[in-house]
Amino acid sequence: MVLMSLLLIGAGTIALAAKDQKTSKAKTAKAQNAPAVKAAFDASKMGNMKGWDPANWVNPEGDTIRIAVVWPHSGPGALNGQMGWLCATFVAYDINARGGILVDGKKKKIALFKADSQSRPDAAKKMLERMILQEKVHFLVGTSGSNIQKISNEMAGRYKIISLNVAALADDLQDATNFNRYSFMTSDTTDSVGRGVAYFYGQVRKKEKKFYILCQDYSFGRGLADGFKKGLKEYYPEAEIVGEDYHKLFLTDFAPYLTKIKASGAEVVYTGDWTPDAANLLKQSRHMGIMIPFANIFMDEPGMLAEVGIEGTKGLMNIKHFDTAGPAFNDPGMRKYYTAWNTEWKKFKTAPFNSVTFTWPWGTFGFWTQQMYWFLSVVERAGTTDAEKIIPVFEGDTYRFVSGRVVKMRACDHKAIQGFRMCEYVPPEQQKVSMNMPPYYWMKDNSGCGPSWEIPADKVLPLMDEKLDRCKGKSPAE
Length: 478
Fold this sequence. Notes:
Low-confidence stretches: 1-29
Structural class: alpha/beta
Radius of gyration: 22 Å
Mean pLDDT: 92
């Protein structure tokens, strides 16, 4: 009788968990005005992640799906490469633990190859040619740096393999000049990020009105600024831009810019800076006594935030695609995904992966991994590594992340349509509104995500270049 009671209780718990998962995802989809999905990440099907360690990755033997992980694995942007490699190995380890993916009539596991761009276009081109011609990779996945991603896309078009862009945001990557049918942008875009931040301040927060723009001086930073300015005109016309500057990549001295910000009367600094610029900018601003918030997308690296501390990080406003508003862990799948990552991270022995930076698969890590899962789902459904057969499956595809966010691949220009979450950073004791499982805070040494708000996808549709023949007469929401 006791055993039967336990079984009945367990069955009831599983049924309730499944009901809760279905309900939470339905609510999330409704909040996003999301389309019906063709495929979704199912955490219940994850492989055994025991033994996953990005520092000790070993490729499987035999006939494999070969992927070049295109990132700066050395040089000043190497942290971004470490982040990319971490995410790629997590996805590949999971897929391989499941036995691989059925393609071309055979189940194949995934082999990964570091393609080090060194953040240099000349080095990236040489490396990509080696990956394609010598390593015979099927796909290119990356990268931080829209200038490098452009080269990756060009090489994919030349050799007719798929280039998956999970981390570069410049809108012109997929415009009439640069588009090729072998490149897919599952990442967010500069225009939609900028408009999303403006939407939040103008339509949701309705508080601060004076903004200073400080971004990196290349297509990515310029695009982010343009999107923000466009969004303010659209959603917050009473706001004022009190200053606007652009700086070179990998800058070490932000004092001249920060002095101008301090004198401007700005209430918020809007920036798209990524590591190491984001870290240097925040640290130096706090050292100079400038405590106003930064509205950002990449100023969320845990190691850097811990160095700045609780007070210095309080009030940061972070925009992200992977996360959804409200409590992060709404169903068993979310908890399983998080636990699988975090459990193995605790066993890492090798720097830098054993540092706090790599603790959990949320924010950027969540977004990068889920984009890779989305693409491999497309490959599996196409049943082949042949780019020509993958393309029609990917175009118009819809996919639900483990977080519940639904994304759609716009067919005409291969840009993903997706919403955002905006989050305010608060001290550890207030983070439980987001981190709703033990220990009920994301980070104890600095402020982290607390209250959050959803920005619907239809408010931030990515730019569509009507000069691109494929897009003529199309709706941006298609």
